[in-house]
Amino acid sequence: MKIGITGASGLIGQKVAALASDRGHEIIGYSRNPDKTIPHTSKVLPITEDTLAETPLDALVHLAGESLLGIWTDIKRKSIWKSRVDLTQSIVKSISGWNPENRPKAFLCASGVGFYGNRDEDTLTESEPVGKGFLASLCEAWEDAAEEATEFGARVVQLRTGVVLSERGGAFPLMRLAFSCFVGGRIGDGTQWMPWIHLDDEASLILHAIENDQVSGPINLSAPTPVTNATLTTTLAKTLHRPALFPAPAPLLRVALGSLADEVFLTSQRAIPRKAQEFGYTFKFTDLATALKHLAS
């Protein structure tokens, strides 16, 4: 298959490209920095309507988007929205104008468990309704934009990703640094549920969804064993042989980070990957301690 990946230079994009290439697929990378060399891609193109139309694809995986980290000013929120919802709309519009023979048969678009909002102890499968808050509204609009690709016959999959654990980027290196400096600890009271997934499973699940034409709609990209922040903290402390001495109080986080604190660090989302299990995916990492030991080694 010929697979296009936007955000191909990112943590997830590079892993998907490597895995897909190993399975014999050809990878076309799309990046805001097309001069950058991205391993396992046959070529790298900028994300524009013209370049998107240059190469026929069997599948397009859309992972590009501005980081959520930072103070959520009005300008930051607009930038996040534009890089996700508006860009997805532009991509789908571009594809609709292609020769039908060149259009990707599958369109997989990033989303997140932020779709569910803060849900306390609720167990969240893909059938749960959208929650409240900026991230929930963002993910809903993002998924709706991707769904428009069904109008020209594409199979659409929305990738509701949890906390991706990798030694090369994301949350784990920051947590490891904090604990290594003896300043690690839980966030808030630690009771909030955190759906996590190892990068190996994240990429494998995405490729599984590309190759399996029975998969469509939203899928939770998270391990089948979500944990609370307190459990994550104590497990990581044991893995790194460091104490967890310094909790981050919720009021302090709200002062420092504003609404980002409530919607990213303090929110509770007990998401489980029901669809992934139903379509036969076997997770490599289902136990948090095993996953963390693998990353720490």
Keywords:
seven-stranded parallel sheet, 297 residues, alpha/beta, two-stranded parallel ribbon
Q: Can you characterise this structure?
A:
With 297 residues, this protein is an alpha/beta fold. It has helices spanning 11-22, 49-52, 74-96, 134-147, 171-180, 199-211, 229-240, 250-257, 259-265, 274-278, 288-296; strands spanning 2-6, 26-30, 43-45, 59-62, 106-112, 123-124, 155-161, 163-165, 193-194, 196-198, 217-221, 227-228, 270-271. The strands form 4 sheets. It has a 7-stranded parallel sheet, sandwiched between helices. It is globular and about 60 Å long.
Could you write a compact summary of the structure shown?
With 297 residues, the chain is an alpha/beta fold. The protein has helices at residues 11-22, 49-52, 74-96, 134-147, 171-180, 199-211, 229-240, 250-257, 259-265, 274-278, 288-296, and strands at 2-6, 26-30, 43-45, 59-62, 106-112, 123-124, 155-161, 163-165, 193-194, 196-198, 217-221, 227-228, 270-271.
> Tell me, what's the shape?
globular
How many helices?
A: 11
Coarse structural class: alpha/beta
Mean pLDDT: 94
Q: Give unreliable regions as ranges.
A: none
Q: What is the radius of gyration?
A: 19 Å
Main sheet specs: 7 strands, parallel
